[in-house]
Amino acid sequence: MWDEFRIVEGTDNDRAWEITSEILMHYLEHAQKSEFTATQTLMLTALVYAHQCTILEQEGKTVDALGMFFYNGILNGDFNEGSRLNVSGFVKRNKLKPVKNEIFEYAQNNFSHKNILSADLRQCQLDAKAIFIRQ
């Protein structure tokens, strides 16, 4: 499925979203069959959410992309140099410099393995909207 995704990535966002949703379902089924813990399952799905974030960015859905970015960041764990670079890139690509500090603060406070089990995509989207309103 990832091969098919790579073919349509950047050219057919609707199909790319469908494919990532199918991959997510396969990952969840695999995690259940393999008796993954909740933490392992969420970490497994992080790559899919990263690609969905990119799709949302390409569609100009910046607030939704920021919420997905936050969620993915929590699933990826502790804030580190890689996280810092990801945040910088996201801010630059989406012209969010006016709220750069708020985005960095959110990432530093929330991107942590201890938050994985309480990660909530809807709450991340609400947090993104609250930050975006300040822009």
Label this structure with key terms.
globular; mainly alpha; 135 residues
How far is it from the N-terminal to the C-terminal residue, by CA? 38 Å
Global outline:
globular
Query: Could you state the order of secondary-structure elements as H and E?
Result: HHHHHHH
Spans of 5+ residues with little confidence (pLDDT < 50)?
none
Radius of gyration: 15 Å
Specify the structural class: mainly alpha
Number of beta-strand segments: 0
Overall pLDDT score? 93
Relative helix content: over 70%
Helix segment tally: 7
| Biggest sheet overview | none
Strand content: under 5%
Describe this structure in words.
With 135 residues, the chain is mostly helical. Helices cover 75% and strands 0% of the residues. It contains seven helices and no strands. The longest helix is centred in the first third of the chain and has 21 residues, at 13-33. The chain starts with a helix and ends with a helix. The mean pLDDT is 93.
